[in-house]
Amino acid sequence: MRNDTALGLQEARGPWARLLRFVLYTVLFAVFAGPLLALMIGAFTPTVDPTQFTLFPDRLSLDNLERAIDRNVLDYLLNSFLVVGGGLALQVLVSVFAGYALARKRFRGSAVVLVLILATMMLPEEVLAVPLSVLLADLPVLHISLVGSLAGMIVPVAAWGFSILVMTEFMKEIPTELEESARLDGAGEFRVFWQVVLPLCRPALGVIGIFGFTMIWDQYMLPLLVATDPAQYTLPLALRSLRSDDQVGIGVLLVGAFLAMLPSVLAFLALQRSFIRGLTSGAVKG
Which DSSP symbol is given to 246? Predict the structure, then answer.
């Protein structure tokens, strides 16, 4: 039986082929997982000299973690979780409803709306910094300020062009016959959306969940514009502040960096099946 590789070539057999695959997998593991392992080991290695870093320490210790807790790193971590939790929930909600309207409804100007959504993805954060800070200081209509609050970090990420486009393109591929059958059975608009369309979008939800989590978690410019007190810092912003403090050792920074990286890894592991299924669905449909 012939086994083909992803490139359509016949898979090589024999001891040399197995050795080559072992070497290749080892190199890939070192490249992708090596930095995470090195960061984890460094965070729990009792050393204050970065030149003494080693992958095989004599002993592990929680001293760096204790010093990081004294520097309020856990408070910054909690702020990051609050921001990413609220922001991602709103982002997914906006994306599924906007995607449903753009994909399943026909209205004049829908193409213009898609172009405008795509245009928002082409503007760098530095260009949006000044107008965003003005809007957050005085929200239109409501005339309230979100500066100095976690809400100011959540509201701007509630809508993201990438997530809306992913949901729109995925929902376009759902057969309209399913909706028509549900309506013939007496289902209303919301029931069709909730019980027919949305369950079929789980792969797309996994994709926007992972990318949305990473985008919000890694935000630096937005917390920098909104936070007016160190107690409001998220972890990425706090790491920059801790780095500029001469009293903070390298161990505390490594702990903070490890805590900043770990949630993104866990989020991918939790949603990887939906993520891969979503990419596969897009490849098959495209």
Answer: T
